[in-house]
Fold this protein.
Amino acid sequence: LNRTVGAMLSNKISKRYGANGLPDNTITVNATGHAGQSFGGFSACGITFNVKGDANDYFGKGLSGARLIIRPPESATFKAEENILIGNVAFYGAIKGEAFINGMAGERFCVRNSGAITVVEGIGDHGCEYMTGGRSVILGPTGRNFAAGMSGGIAYVLDEAGDFIKNRCNPEMVDFDPLESSDIAFLRDRIEQHQKLTGSPKAARLLADWEGTLKKFVKVIPVDYKKALIILADEKKTGE
């Protein structure tokens, strides 16, 4: 597949329908094979990309409302959860939309993400670096220096090895909080959607042992972002 698939289509959508784009799933694109750089880049609301294959760097760069789904082809003989399916710097500068990756991502996953919601089964170094918004669910291991410069958004990391906080996360700007009921509901919904859309065996296993799964999640939230959420919640209560 060529580079930046989806960008020109999204340009036409935004010119005709404005920033809000089209209703969800108005356009569905099914793709097979090896996606070039920036697949789904800047893609607008109303587009769903289903990919059976793998993708190069900058997958979902500047994502602007579309849904990206990627999984290995049925003929694949490897375990998706143990292999890199998309390259480095995926979802760089994404502002809106969602993604489900049945496999691992390379380095600098969700750098400068400001609004996209993503699910992936493992990532390389520097994940969620300089992230300012959105949410990321990591259903597997991370590399080192996770959350460096992270000032907004929330990440949920499945820490099966038990070494994430000590060895893999940069704690300078973030807290590690217990899951609240809203977090649990969010995770359940995302993982169910991930299993439904990609057929992920790992997602199925996690759902089958839900109580055990929840015990392994680490919620990563920037300190200042958490304070801002508390202030907003208090103001809402006062207004009511």
DSSP finds six helices and eleven strands in the chain. The CA atoms of residues 230 and 236 lie 10 Å apart.
